[in-house]
Amino acid sequence: MKPEVLQILKEYGQEHILNYMNLLNEEEKENLEEQISKIDFNQLKNLYEMTKRKVEFEEKKIEHINYTNKEKLSEDRIKELEEVGGKIIEEGHYAVITMAGGQGTRLGHKGPKGTYELNTKYGKKYIFEIIVDTLKRAKDKYKITIPWYVMTSRENHEDTVEFLEKHEYFGYDKTKVKFFMQGELPLIDTNGKLILDKDKKIKEAADGNGGIYEAVSKSGILEDMKKNQIDWIFVSNVDNILSNFVDPILLALTIEENQKIGAKSVAKTNPKEKVGVFCKMNGKPKIIEYIDLPDEMAEQRDENGELQFGEVNLANYLFHRSVFENLADVKLPYHAAFKKSGYLKENGEFVEVEEPNVYKYESFIFDVFERYDDITILRVKREDEFAPVKNKEGNDSPETAVKLYNDKM
To answer: Would you write out the chain's pLDDT as a tens digit for each of its 409 residues?
Structure first.
């Protein structure tokens, strides 16, 4: 092993990696050394220390956040907004990013989640195919092919590209489709040690959807947006098959309110629904998770009987390009999650585990909201725009999502 790599391992207490050397051939040793040289060990050390510290809660002033209810807009107002937003889309200043870095594991599917097949009233359709259907309808309406950027992960990048190539992008212009990968961070066990995977490399995992800002910059996508004069970018998850991601109304409202970020919400079904909601925290826009919202606040209603904290986060966001430019080199805070992960023992045996054993670090796309004074929120009807495919059965399953899709489409 190269002296400089050996020095890094010793400095950060990761010498146990040396015990695997007798398992590796020359090529595997070179790959491992290269991987080690690219890891920010100081960052990892700080992240691990964070997991050992007790969280100190700062005083939080949580307030209601304003929103526009689409259902209460007049026909004339809808038409006015559609004209303003539609003009920007027609002029080619609008693009779409699909966050598609996940696998379909929870659905019992091997492969990227976008390659999962659903049995709709129009026949069998892949999730990616449904997304392309939406893009094609926008093309027919606005007479322009909207650029489509697909964020993948190392785990599914090749499979995603190969799948869309094989299906000829479901008839969409492939020159308007570009892929980029989100970043990764190593997993760390409870002793702060790196683990190895079956491929004899340090095991890493995607660094959360908050890595999108850095990834867009590093991959050249941001430069592509500038070159093509794209000013507004809609970002959404791959698994919401009713996502209305070419939306002139949200676009026009965001511009009218002089904001750089817009988002969509749906009304909470009840105060105890286990969802993240929009709010103002210490005067800044924020997503607050249900476990952090006190029961008495969750129950609060306004003079119209609406929940004060009832705007559910759909992970449907609109950004002005300047947001990506400003955040290209900014490191968002990471959140630790305790997860299960198999690992390679020093004798070469791969162990599957039953209980959480490693820390995974993720940043969240919405953590940037608090860098701005306000954002635009458009409340839409759940049955119109929210049909997530997350679980194999029950809520947010293929069955529930397809029913919503069939009813709407």
So the answer is: 788 989 999 999 999 999 998 899 999 999 999 999 999 999 999 999 988 776 554 567 889 999 999 999 999 999 999 999 999 999 999 999 999 999 998 899 999 999 999 999 999 999 999 999 999 999 999 999 999 999 999 989 999 999 999 999 999 999 999 999 998 999 999 999 999 999 999 999 889 999 999 999 999 999 999 999 999 999 999 999 999 999 999 999 999 999 999 999 999 999 999 899 999 999 999 999 888 888 899 999 988 889 999 999 999 999 999 999 999 888 888 999 899 999 999 999 999 999 999 999 999 999 999 999 999 999 999 999 999 999 999 989 999 999 999 999 8
Output DSSP code: residue 97. Answer: E
Query: In the 8-state DSSP scheme, what is residue 188?
Result: E
Domains and CATH numbers, the chain: 39-408 (3.90.550.10)
* 196 φ/ψ angles, rounded to the nearest 5 degrees: -105, 150
| Alpha carbon distance 206, 185 (integer Å) | 6
Rounded CA separation 93/246 (Å): 12
Residues 6+ apart with CB under 8 A from 57: none
Is the pTM value of this prediction over 0.85? yes
Are 317 and 210 in contact by the 8 Å Cβ rule? The answer is no
User: Using CA atoms in the order 292, 297, 298, 300, what is the torsion angle rounded to 10 degrees?
Assistant: -170
Closest CA to 385 of 285, 278, 261, 263: 263
Whether 186 contacts 358, CB under 8 Å:
no
Strands 184-186 and 148-152: unpaired
Return d(Cα 221, Cα 96) in angstroms, integer. Answer: 12
